[in-house]
Amino acid sequence: MKLLGIMDLTTRWNYTKQGVHQKMKNDEDFPEPIAKINKNTLVFSEDQIISYEQKRKELTDSKYKEWHITRKWLYKEKMSGEELE
Fold this sequence. Notes:
Blueprint: E1 3-5, H1 6-13, H2 17-26, E2 35-37, E3 41-45, H3 46-55, H4 62-84
Antiparallel strand pairs: 1-3, 2-3
Helix pairs in contact: 1-2
C-alpha cells in the first residue's frame, strides 16, 4: 500500500496546503486519513485518493479546474446580483 501525505496531494493537484485542508474540511467525500504520524502528519491511501480524484475531475485536469473555478465564481456573482435586486 502506498501512502500519500498533504505535500504529495499539493503536488498532485497543484494546490496549496491550505487548499488541501479546505477540501478535507468542506468535502464530506474526502478520504479519511489512514494514520497520523508524529502527532500531526496525516497520511492517506493512494488507492482511496485515486478513487476520490476520479470523481473530482478538477483535481487532475488543469483546464477543467480553470473552468470549474470560473463557473463557481460566475454563479456566486450572479447570486449576489440577484440578492441585490
